[in-house]
């Protein structure tokens, strides 16, 4: 598949799960398409379309290390995301990066992700957490922040404060993840 074919097919109409699986298979077979896919994510984000971001999300679920091929572009564009559906997928990608860097301690992630990448990602995730976003975006962002707090001392106290202030008024999903993170924060001495 060429970049142009990928763009045309992702822009043709709203895709469904079988098409997502097809595109994921193509990108996993031809990893050079990750850069093109991320470019299409940003193009579609401006139009409020989320086909490419949905595919990008599923690609990273199956092969997370592919984010490393586009990490600079991914991080540089995070703060410019506009569409809620695209932001949700990017927040999940941030969670994946944080898990592989901090929890799994994947050596490829540790070698290629810089402190600047992590700082930008944490800042954007905090913005997503406190802004008016859907619960999935907030849940992925708070999880990313919890892990990033291992590196940045300001994050965990701020995250704890935010969660304590908003857990009572959050949705069931927010309360569930927020409650679990509050327990973890307490166990870490926050």
Overview of the molecule:
The chain has 190 residues and is mostly helical. It has a single domain, classed as Leucine-rich Repeat Variant (Alpha Horseshoe). The chain is 75% helix and 0% strand. It contains 11 helices and no strands. The chain is globular and about 50 Å long.
Principal-axis shape equals globular
Number of beta strands: 0
List segments where confidence is low: pLDDT < 50 over at least 5 consecutive residues: none
| Number of helices in the DSSP assignment | 11
> What does the radius of gyration come to?
17 Å
What is the CATH T-level topology? Leucine-rich Repeat Variant
Structural class: mainly alpha
Q: In sequence order, what are the helices and strands, one letter per element?
A: HHHHHHHHHHH
Lay out the secondary structure.
Blueprint: H1 3-12, H2 17-29, H3 33-47, H4 51-62, H5 71-78, H6 84-103, H7 107-112, H8 115-130, H9 135-148, H10 155-166, H11 172-187
Describe the structure using short key phrases.
11 helices; Leucine-rich Repeat Variant; globular; single chain
């Amino acid at each position: 598949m060429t970049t142009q074919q990928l763009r045309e097919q992702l822009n043709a109409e709203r895709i469904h799960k079988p098409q997502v699986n097809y595109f994921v298979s193509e990108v996993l077979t031809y990893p050079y398409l990750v850069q093109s896919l991320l470019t299409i994510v940003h193009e579609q984000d401006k139009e409020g379309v989320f086909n490419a971001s949905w595919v990008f999300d599923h690609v990273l679920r199956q092969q997370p290390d592919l984010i490393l091929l586009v990490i600079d572009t991914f991080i540089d564009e995070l703060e410019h995301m506009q569409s809620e559906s695209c932001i949700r997928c990017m927040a999940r990608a941030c969670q994946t990066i944080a898990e592989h860097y901090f929890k799994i301690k994947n050596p490829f992630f540790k070698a290629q992700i810089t402190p600047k990448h992590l700082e930008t990602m944490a800042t954007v995730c905090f913005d997503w957490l406190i802004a008016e976003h859907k619960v999935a975006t907030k849940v992925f962002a708070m999880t990313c922040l919890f892990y990033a707090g291992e590196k940045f001392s300001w994050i965990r106290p701020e995250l704890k404060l935010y969660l304590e202030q908003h857990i009572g008024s959050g949705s069931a999903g927010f309360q569930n993840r927020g409650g679990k993170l509050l327990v973890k924060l307490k166990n870490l001495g926050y």
